[in-house]
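Quick start: what a row looks like.
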Amino acid sequence: SAYVWRYYFFDAGGDCAAGCTTLRLVMFESTASGATTRVGEVGGVQSAERLAEAKASWITDRATRERQADILFNRLDSEGKLDDAKVALVTNSDALETHDAVVDALGEYDLEPVEDLTLDAPIGDFPAEDAGWAPLAERVRSSGATAVLIAGNPSSTIRNRAAFGHDVDIWVLDQETLLNLGTSVSAEDARGVLAAAPPSNQLDLDSFADCRDTFTAANPDVKLLSPQEREATDDNVLAGLGLACNFLDLFKTVATAAGEDLNNETFAAALEGLDDFSIATQPYASFGVDKFDSNDSFQLVAFDPDLGPTGGLDPLTDVQDVTP
Protein backbone atom coordinates (compact mmCIF):
# COMPACT_ATOMS: atom_id res chain seq x y z
CA SER A 1 0.00 0.00 0.00
CA ALA A 2 1.10 3.55 -0.68
CA TYR A 3 -0.21 4.58 2.73
CA VAL A 4 0.48 3.40 6.23
CA TRP A 5 -1.22 4.28 9.45
CA ARG A 6 0.19 4.33 12.92
CA TYR A 7 -1.69 4.41 16.18
CA TYR A 8 -0.40 6.43 19.12
CA PHE A 9 -1.80 6.65 22.63
CA PHE A 10 -0.88 9.52 24.89
CA ASP A 11 -1.99 9.84 28.50
CA ALA A 12 -1.53 13.22 30.11
CA GLY A 13 -1.34 11.54 33.49
CA GLY A 14 -2.96 12.62 36.70
CA ASP A 15 -5.89 11.18 38.58
CA CYS A 16 -8.54 10.28 36.03
CA ALA A 17 -11.17 10.29 38.75
CA ALA A 18 -10.44 13.99 39.01
CA GLY A 19 -10.52 14.48 35.27
CA CYS A 20 -7.61 13.73 32.97
CA THR A 21 -7.11 14.13 29.26
CA THR A 22 -6.16 11.32 26.96
CA LEU A 23 -5.05 12.13 23.45
CA ARG A 24 -5.49 9.49 20.80
CA LEU A 25 -4.10 10.02 17.33
CA VAL A 26 -3.84 7.97 14.19
CA MET A 27 -1.08 9.29 11.92
CA PHE A 28 -1.73 8.53 8.25
CA GLU A 29 1.47 8.71 6.24
CA SER A 30 2.16 8.45 2.52
CA THR A 31 5.07 6.43 1.16
CA ALA A 32 4.11 6.91 -2.48
CA SER A 33 7.08 9.17 -3.26
CA GLY A 34 9.62 6.79 -1.72
CA ALA A 35 9.88 8.98 1.37
CA THR A 36 7.48 9.05 4.29
CA THR A 37 5.44 12.23 4.48
CA ARG A 38 2.64 12.83 6.92
CA VAL A 39 -0.75 13.32 5.25
CA GLY A 40 -2.95 13.94 8.26
CA GLU A 41 -3.64 13.28 11.91
CA VAL A 42 -6.97 11.92 13.10
CA GLY A 43 -8.48 11.79 16.58
CA GLY A 44 -7.59 13.20 19.96
CA VAL A 45 -8.62 16.26 21.92
CA GLN A 46 -8.06 19.52 20.10
CA SER A 47 -7.33 22.97 21.45
CA ALA A 48 -6.12 26.12 19.78
CA GLU A 49 -2.64 25.57 21.19
CA ARG A 50 -2.45 21.96 20.03
CA LEU A 51 -3.75 22.81 16.57
CA ALA A 52 -1.07 25.46 16.22
CA GLU A 53 1.61 22.89 17.04
CA ALA A 54 0.29 20.12 14.75
CA LYS A 55 2.79 18.88 12.17
CA ALA A 56 0.10 18.07 9.60
CA SER A 57 -3.62 18.69 9.05
CA TRP A 58 -5.38 17.50 12.18
CA ILE A 59 -9.02 16.43 12.33
CA THR A 60 -10.94 14.76 15.14
CA ASP A 61 -14.27 13.12 15.81
CA ARG A 62 -14.78 15.00 19.10
CA ALA A 63 -16.44 18.40 19.38
CA THR A 64 -14.02 21.01 20.65
CA ARG A 65 -14.44 22.62 24.04
CA GLU A 66 -15.14 25.90 22.27
CA ARG A 67 -18.25 24.36 20.64
CA GLN A 68 -19.57 22.47 23.67
CA ALA A 69 -21.49 25.40 25.14
CA ASP A 70 -23.32 26.24 21.92
CA ILE A 71 -24.20 22.57 21.38
CA LEU A 72 -25.59 22.25 24.92
CA PHE A 73 -27.65 25.43 24.65
CA ASN A 74 -28.97 24.32 21.25
CA ARG A 75 -30.31 21.12 22.80
CA LEU A 76 -31.62 22.82 25.96
CA ASP A 77 -33.36 25.49 23.90
CA SER A 78 -35.06 22.88 21.72
CA GLU A 79 -36.70 21.49 24.86
CA GLY A 80 -37.69 24.90 26.26
CA LYS A 81 -35.28 24.62 29.17
CA LEU A 82 -33.75 28.04 28.54
CA ASP A 83 -37.12 29.78 28.92
CA ASP A 84 -36.95 31.98 32.04
CA ALA A 85 -33.74 30.22 33.09
CA LYS A 86 -31.47 31.97 35.58
CA VAL A 87 -28.01 30.56 35.06
CA ALA A 88 -25.07 30.72 37.45
CA LEU A 89 -21.83 29.96 35.62
CA VAL A 90 -19.08 28.17 37.54
CA THR A 91 -15.76 27.82 35.73
CA ASN A 92 -13.33 25.31 37.19
CA SER A 93 -9.56 25.64 37.13
CA ASP A 94 -9.33 23.03 34.34
CA ALA A 95 -11.51 25.07 31.96
CA LEU A 96 -10.53 28.72 32.41
CA GLU A 97 -9.71 29.08 28.72
CA THR A 98 -13.32 28.28 27.79
CA HIS A 99 -14.92 30.99 29.95
CA ASP A 100 -15.31 33.69 27.32
CA ALA A 101 -16.69 31.25 24.73
CA VAL A 102 -19.28 30.05 27.23
CA VAL A 103 -20.39 33.59 28.09
CA ASP A 104 -20.61 34.45 24.38
CA ALA A 105 -22.70 31.33 23.73
CA LEU A 106 -25.09 32.28 26.52
CA GLY A 107 -25.40 35.71 24.97
CA GLU A 108 -26.51 34.16 21.68
CA TYR A 109 -29.58 32.95 23.58
CA ASP A 110 -30.08 36.31 25.34
CA LEU A 111 -28.87 34.92 28.64
CA GLU A 112 -26.48 36.66 31.02
CA PRO A 113 -25.20 34.75 34.04
CA VAL A 114 -26.82 35.81 37.30
CA GLU A 115 -23.47 34.84 38.83
CA ASP A 116 -20.14 34.36 37.08
CA LEU A 117 -17.96 32.37 39.48
CA THR A 118 -14.57 30.70 39.39
CA LEU A 119 -13.54 27.68 41.44
CA ASP A 120 -9.76 27.84 41.36
CA ALA A 121 -9.07 24.82 43.59
CA PRO A 122 -6.96 22.10 41.96
CA ILE A 123 -9.13 19.38 40.44
CA GLY A 124 -9.06 16.34 42.73
CA ASP A 125 -8.03 18.24 45.86
CA PHE A 126 -11.31 17.51 47.60
CA PRO A 127 -10.75 19.58 50.78
CA ALA A 128 -9.72 22.60 48.68
CA GLU A 129 -12.67 22.15 46.32
CA ASP A 130 -15.15 21.91 49.17
CA ALA A 131 -13.64 24.90 50.98
CA GLY A 132 -13.83 26.89 47.75
CA TRP A 133 -17.46 25.94 47.29
CA ALA A 134 -18.59 27.31 50.65
CA PRO A 135 -18.70 30.98 49.55
CA LEU A 136 -19.82 30.04 46.03
CA ALA A 137 -22.79 28.13 47.41
CA GLU A 138 -24.14 31.20 49.20
CA ARG A 139 -23.73 33.34 46.09
CA VAL A 140 -25.57 30.77 43.98
CA ARG A 141 -28.36 30.60 46.55
CA SER A 142 -28.77 34.37 46.87
CA SER A 143 -28.68 34.91 43.10
CA GLY A 144 -31.93 33.02 42.61
CA ALA A 145 -30.28 30.76 40.03
CA THR A 146 -32.40 27.94 38.67
CA ALA A 147 -29.44 26.18 37.04
CA VAL A 148 -25.70 25.95 37.60
CA LEU A 149 -23.68 25.64 34.39
CA ILE A 150 -20.33 23.90 34.89
CA ALA A 151 -17.33 24.56 32.68
CA GLY A 152 -14.84 21.84 33.56
CA ASN A 153 -15.08 18.81 35.81
CA PRO A 154 -18.49 18.76 37.55
CA SER A 155 -17.67 16.43 40.46
CA SER A 156 -17.20 19.13 43.10
CA THR A 157 -20.39 20.93 42.06
CA ILE A 158 -22.45 17.75 42.22
CA ARG A 159 -20.95 16.85 45.58
CA ASN A 160 -21.56 20.29 47.04
CA ARG A 161 -25.07 20.70 45.63
CA ALA A 162 -25.98 17.72 47.78
CA ALA A 163 -24.02 19.00 50.78
CA PHE A 164 -25.60 22.47 50.70
CA GLY A 165 -29.07 21.23 49.78
CA HIS A 166 -29.39 23.39 46.66
CA ASP A 167 -32.52 22.85 44.61
CA VAL A 168 -30.98 23.80 41.26
CA ASP A 169 -30.41 21.98 38.01
CA ILE A 170 -26.85 21.24 36.94
CA TRP A 171 -25.82 21.58 33.30
CA VAL A 172 -22.49 20.12 32.23
CA LEU A 173 -20.55 21.09 29.12
CA ASP A 174 -18.49 17.91 28.79
CA GLN A 175 -20.70 14.83 28.98
CA GLU A 176 -17.71 12.49 29.27
CA THR A 177 -16.96 13.82 32.74
CA LEU A 178 -20.30 12.42 33.92
CA LEU A 179 -19.05 8.94 33.13
CA ASN A 180 -15.93 9.47 35.25
CA LEU A 181 -17.17 11.18 38.40
CA GLY A 182 -14.79 9.39 40.74
CA THR A 183 -15.23 8.04 44.22
CA SER A 184 -15.89 11.40 45.87
CA VAL A 185 -19.33 11.66 44.25
CA SER A 186 -22.36 9.51 44.89
CA ALA A 187 -23.88 8.50 41.55
CA GLU A 188 -27.30 9.12 43.08
CA ASP A 189 -26.36 12.76 43.74
CA ALA A 190 -25.70 13.15 39.99
CA ARG A 191 -29.13 11.89 38.99
CA GLY A 192 -30.74 14.24 36.49
CA VAL A 193 -27.63 16.28 35.65
CA LEU A 194 -28.07 17.44 32.05
CA ALA A 195 -25.61 17.46 29.17
CA ALA A 196 -25.53 17.23 25.39
CA ALA A 197 -24.03 13.97 24.18
CA PRO A 198 -23.34 12.05 20.99
CA PRO A 199 -25.68 9.11 20.25
CA SER A 200 -26.03 7.04 23.41
CA ASN A 201 -26.33 3.68 21.66
CA GLN A 202 -24.37 3.49 18.43
CA LEU A 203 -25.68 -0.02 17.76
CA ASP A 204 -28.96 1.59 16.69
CA LEU A 205 -27.34 3.84 14.07
CA ASP A 206 -27.58 3.06 10.35
CA SER A 207 -24.20 4.76 9.93
CA PHE A 208 -22.64 2.17 12.28
CA ALA A 209 -23.92 -0.89 10.42
CA ASP A 210 -20.84 -1.46 8.24
CA CYS A 211 -18.49 -1.09 11.21
CA ARG A 212 -20.57 -3.46 13.34
CA ASP A 213 -21.01 -6.09 10.63
CA THR A 214 -17.34 -6.09 9.64
CA PHE A 215 -16.22 -6.52 13.25
CA THR A 216 -18.79 -9.20 14.03
CA ALA A 217 -17.82 -11.22 10.96
CA ALA A 218 -14.17 -11.18 12.04
CA ASN A 219 -14.93 -11.73 15.74
CA PRO A 220 -18.04 -13.92 15.96
CA ASP A 221 -17.40 -14.81 19.60
CA VAL A 222 -17.27 -11.19 20.79
CA LYS A 223 -20.63 -9.74 21.82
CA LEU A 224 -21.11 -6.02 21.36
CA LEU A 225 -22.90 -4.75 24.45
CA SER A 226 -24.78 -1.47 24.65
CA PRO A 227 -24.05 0.83 27.62
CA GLN A 228 -27.28 -0.40 29.22
CA GLU A 229 -26.30 -4.07 28.86
CA ARG A 230 -22.67 -3.84 29.97
CA GLU A 231 -21.76 -5.04 33.46
CA ALA A 232 -18.79 -3.88 35.50
CA THR A 233 -16.76 -6.94 34.48
CA ASP A 234 -17.43 -6.54 30.74
CA ASP A 235 -14.88 -4.91 28.45
CA ASN A 236 -16.21 -1.81 26.73
CA VAL A 237 -15.55 -3.19 23.25
CA LEU A 238 -18.21 -1.01 21.65
CA ALA A 239 -16.54 2.26 22.62
CA GLY A 240 -13.17 1.19 21.21
CA LEU A 241 -14.76 -0.10 18.03
CA GLY A 242 -16.62 3.14 17.47
CA LEU A 243 -13.42 5.12 17.97
CA ALA A 244 -11.46 3.00 15.49
CA CYS A 245 -14.20 3.10 12.84
CA ASN A 246 -14.61 6.85 13.25
CA PHE A 247 -10.90 7.38 12.65
CA LEU A 248 -10.85 5.24 9.53
CA ASP A 249 -14.09 6.73 8.20
CA LEU A 250 -12.79 10.26 8.71
CA PHE A 251 -9.56 9.54 6.87
CA LYS A 252 -11.39 7.76 4.05
CA THR A 253 -13.88 10.62 3.66
CA VAL A 254 -11.21 13.32 3.47
CA ALA A 255 -8.77 11.26 1.39
CA THR A 256 -11.49 10.47 -1.16
CA ALA A 257 -12.38 14.14 -1.44
CA ALA A 258 -8.68 15.06 -1.80
CA GLY A 259 -8.26 12.79 -4.83
CA GLU A 260 -5.42 10.66 -6.13
CA ASP A 261 -2.71 13.23 -5.43
CA LEU A 262 -3.01 12.83 -1.67
CA ASN A 263 -0.70 14.88 0.49
CA ASN A 264 -0.99 17.27 3.40
CA GLU A 265 -1.96 20.19 1.14
CA THR A 266 -4.74 18.36 -0.74
CA PHE A 267 -5.92 16.77 2.51
CA ALA A 268 -6.26 20.22 4.11
CA ALA A 269 -7.96 21.74 1.05
CA ALA A 270 -10.55 18.95 0.95
CA LEU A 271 -11.81 19.78 4.44
CA GLU A 272 -13.42 23.05 3.43
CA GLY A 273 -15.86 21.36 1.04
CA LEU A 274 -16.96 18.58 3.40
CA ASP A 275 -19.97 20.27 4.97
CA ASP A 276 -22.32 17.27 5.14
CA PHE A 277 -21.36 13.62 5.61
CA SER A 278 -21.63 10.77 8.12
CA ILE A 279 -19.21 8.39 9.83
CA ALA A 280 -19.68 5.32 12.02
CA THR A 281 -21.08 6.89 15.20
CA GLN A 282 -22.04 10.25 13.71
CA PRO A 283 -25.02 10.42 11.34
CA TYR A 284 -24.41 14.19 11.09
CA ALA A 285 -20.86 15.40 10.54
CA SER A 286 -19.08 18.26 8.83
CA PHE A 287 -15.82 20.13 8.40
CA GLY A 288 -15.29 23.64 7.10
CA VAL A 289 -13.15 26.73 7.31
CA ASP A 290 -11.56 26.61 10.79
CA LYS A 291 -13.77 23.65 11.76
CA PHE A 292 -11.61 20.57 12.25
CA ASP A 293 -13.92 18.58 14.55
CA SER A 294 -16.52 16.51 12.74
CA ASN A 295 -19.24 15.74 15.26
CA ASP A 296 -22.61 17.45 14.75
CA SER A 297 -24.73 14.58 16.15
CA PHE A 298 -26.06 15.34 19.62
CA GLN A 299 -28.98 14.67 21.93
CA LEU A 300 -29.96 16.00 25.33
CA VAL A 301 -29.19 13.45 28.06
CA ALA A 302 -29.60 13.13 31.81
CA PHE A 303 -27.33 11.15 34.09
CA ASP A 304 -29.04 8.04 35.47
CA PRO A 305 -27.19 6.10 38.20
CA ASP A 306 -29.25 3.00 37.38
CA LEU A 307 -27.81 2.61 33.87
CA GLY A 308 -24.74 0.43 33.43
CA PRO A 309 -22.20 -0.53 36.09
CA THR A 310 -21.51 3.01 37.32
CA GLY A 311 -24.36 5.02 35.85
CA GLY A 312 -24.99 6.22 32.34
CA LEU A 313 -26.55 8.84 30.11
CA ASP A 314 -30.27 8.53 29.50
CA PRO A 315 -31.35 10.16 26.21
CA LEU A 316 -34.16 12.69 26.61
CA THR A 317 -34.38 13.55 22.90
CA ASP A 318 -33.59 12.08 19.52
CA VAL A 319 -30.19 12.76 17.95
CA GLN A 320 -30.26 16.07 16.09
CA ASP A 321 -28.00 17.87 13.62
CA VAL A 322 -26.23 20.79 15.34
CA THR A 323 -24.03 21.80 12.40
CA PRO A 324 -23.02 25.42 13.04
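That is the whole record. The first strand starts at residue 3 and ends at 11. The two ends are 37 Å apart (CA to CA).
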